[in-house]
Amino acid sequence: MVDKKKLLTEENFILFIVILAILVVMLFIVNQGTSKKNSSIIQKNISYNIYSLKGKDKFNGAFFLGTGRINTEEYYVFFSKDENKGGFFKDKIPVASTLLVEKDTVPHVVRNYAIETTIKETFLNGKKVIIDTIVYSNSLFARPVPKSIGYEYILVVPPGTITENQIYEPL
């Protein structure tokens, strides 16, 4: 006759937990191995106009684009209009990932991005999961901008905005 108390000893309990964990891991591996995953990347962009504002210093001109540095990152700073709210907001885009283009048109910024659509069907539950993600962003774990896009931002400015050999006169 087998003593039931001896069956549930500490060693048998640990062995049971290890075997259960191995079975769960094997089931997960089988599920991942038999799941179907399709991905596609679509290039898209958002475009919005940018504006200049007149301040107390009576800056005259049709367009003003500022630059600034936060820590070691350099940014273009400008104002855009929120069409839904009817007001203006300050925006900034990184200089390093921006292409400046001079054109005789309304100044605007274009943000290029790519959306990756992943469709995953698993063996165990048979469900299709559709996940849309932006391929890159300004986060710590960001992917680089896809080569097909080139620049994350395109800043279209009036002719004469980009100047060379600017003279800086300290106050």
UniProtKB/TrEMBL annotation:
The chain crosses the membrane at residues 12-30. Keywords: Membrane, Transmembrane, Transmembrane helix. It comes from the Bacteria. This is Uncharacterized protein. It comes from Elizabethkingia anophelis R26.
